[in-house]
Amino acid sequence: MSQNRVVEGRMVDAKGLAELVEEGSVMEAESISDADRDCPECGGNVLSVGYMPSVTEFVTGYKCQDCPWSADDRE
Ligand SMILES: [Zn+2]
């Protein structure tokens, strides 16, 4: 079963998607799912992925499939 999704025209897996949100490397990522929201920039579909940027941190990241917009749930 492939977890790959097309983001900004290229195929990424969960870890690749997390690294786009984080703009750097991550330790681990869960599977990609569709977030129940639209991109605030372009109205495109938003994907979500849970990941661990470090051993002590778990973050849910959001990334538009069509434009560079991304966000996470850090406070
Ligand atoms: Zn967008």
Distance between the termini: 34 Å
**Percentage of β-strand residues:** over 45%
Could you estimate the helical fraction of the residues in percent?
A: 10-25%
Structural class: mainly beta
Number of helices: 1
> How many individual β-strands?
6
Radius of gyration: 11 Å
Sequence stretches where pLDDT stays below 50 over 5 or more residues: none
* Ligand kinds: zinc ion
Molecular shape: globular
Structure notes:
There is one protein chain. This protein is mainly β. The protein has one domain (5-72). It is 12% helix and 51% strand. It has one helix spanning 14-22; strands at residues 5-7, 10-12, 28-38, 45-54, 57-64, 70-72. The strands form two sheets. A four-stranded antiparallel beta sheet has the order 3-4-5-6, with helices on one face. A two-stranded antiparallel ribbon has the order 1-2. The longest helix has 9 residues, at 14-22. The mean pLDDT is 95. Zinc ion binds next to loops.
